[in-house]
Amino acid sequence: MGWKESNVLEERFGFVEEQRSGEQSIAERCRVYGITRPTAYKWLGRYSEEGMDGLRDRWRAPHHPAHGLEEGVKSWILAVKAKHPYWGARKIVAYLEGQSAGQKWPAVSSVGELLKQQGLTVARKKPRKRLARR
Questions:
Q1: Sign of torsion, CA 47 54 33 17?
Q2: CB of 79 within 8 A of CB of 118?
C-alpha cells in the first residue's frame, strides 16, 4: 500500500466536513488535526461564507505600503535631484535632514526606489568575481 498524499486544502476540507457531522466536540477535533480552536473557527466561518475558496491560503502581504511617500515629500526629493543631478539617495536624504531637522524624511532605500522609478539613476555594473591565485 502506497503513501497517502494530501494537501492543505484537502485537510481543511476534511476538518470542516468531519466537524459538520457533529460526532466530536470542536476541541477534540482540533487536537486530532493539531490546530488551535481560533483557527478552526476561522476555517468554519470562511467555509460557510465562501465555500471551498474560503479554505485557500490568503496573501499576507499588505495591500498598500505602510510608509508610502506623500506627494509633497516626493516633490522635495525630485527638486533636490533636479538641482543636484549627480547626488544619490544618501546625499539627498542627508541634505534634506540638514535643511529641516524637525521633518521626518523617508529612508534612503525609499528615496533610492523613487529615483529608480523616475529613471533618475543609473545602475552600476557589478564587479566581476576574480579567481584566487594559488
A1: positive
A2: no
Are the C-beta atoms of 26 and 43 separated by less than 8 Å? no
Treating both helix axes as pointing N-terminal to C-terminal, what angle do 8-21 and 26-33 enclose, rounded to 10 degrees? 160
Dihedral sign (CA 101, 106, 107, 111):
negative
pLDDT tens figures, 50-82: 999 999 988 888 777 766 788 889 999 999 999
For residue 87, the number of C-alpha atoms closer than 13 Å in the C-beta half-sphere is 18
Grouping H, G, I as helix, E, B as strand and the rest as coil, residue 82 is helix
Instruction: Report the amino acid identity of residue 62.
Output: P
Rounded Cα–Cα distance for residues 27 and 42 (Å):
14
